Amino acid sequence: MSQKTVSDPVGQALLAYLHGNKKAELTVHSNVADEEPLPASYFFRTLWEMPELERTALEECRGRVLDAGAGAGCHSLELQSRGFQVKAIDASPGAVQVLQARGVQEAACHNLFELPAGEQHYDTILMLMNGIGLVGTLEGLEKFLQQAKHLLAPGGQILATSSDISYLYEDEEGALVINLNGPYYGEVEYSMTFGEETGASFDWLFADASLLQDYAEEAGYEVEFLGEDEQQQYLVRLTLKQQNIDNN
């Protein structure tokens, strides 16, 4: 019986780029914006091609690092070059092939909620490129904040970026047009296409800063904002409050 092939347009685009197709490009579909191109080259950027928030996050890393949603490994490889021990995870099998081919020493195919039981503790969980989005929904955010308590070493930190996308819902006068009885406006549904292959749709969360702070503090974390850019993207550090460390 043949095994069903998992649709993996992101992985196929990254592999195509790695193998010489420098014009490889994904098409991003969402329920909040027109489709737009995403060049595979973006996943292979060097340190000086990264946004300032990402460079700041790399400077703030410490200890053993879990790079969640690692893509083609630009952050993992930079951290390895600085002497860090890094585990890179991505839900895309093709991306993990790229991570391994590019020299990431520890790479595994998991989504954020599928880390094996008994997983090592991490001093830093790194979630870049709007990495909070990996949790999918507000319910996923609650789940992740609890799960991370068992992944973080004492004194460990989560370094993550996210964005406020309320600007997508502004009318011509700049007023927000949001259904307050509907889902949170930052819960977005995406799918990706590469060539003729379109992957399954997936949820992605864009959490505005005040909402993220509320959820994180409710879950027992200290919240420190480390920077913000012109696109309303921000970098946040979450660390467990002492009583929560004592209880884990």
TrEMBL record:
<dbReference type="Pfam" id="PF13649">
    <property type="entry name" value="Methyltransf_25"/>
</dbReference>
<keyword id="KW-0489">Methyltransferase</keyword>
<keyword id="KW-0949">S-adenosyl-L-methionine</keyword>
<keyword id="KW-0808">Transferase</keyword>
<dbReference type="GO" id="GO:0008168">
    <property type="term" value="F:methyltransferase activity"/>
</dbReference>
<feature type="domain" description="Methyltransferase">
    <location>
        <begin position="65"/>
        <end position="156"/>
    </location>
</feature>
<dbReference type="GO" id="GO:0032259">
    <property type="term" value="P:methylation"/>
</dbReference>
<dbReference type="InterPro" id="IPR041698">
    <property type="entry name" value="Methyltransf_25"/>
</dbReference>
<dbReference type="InterPro" id="IPR029063">
    <property type="entry name" value="SAM-dependent_MTases_sf"/>
</dbReference>
<protein>
    <submittedName>
        <fullName>Class I SAM-dependent methyltransferase</fullName>
    </submittedName>
</protein>
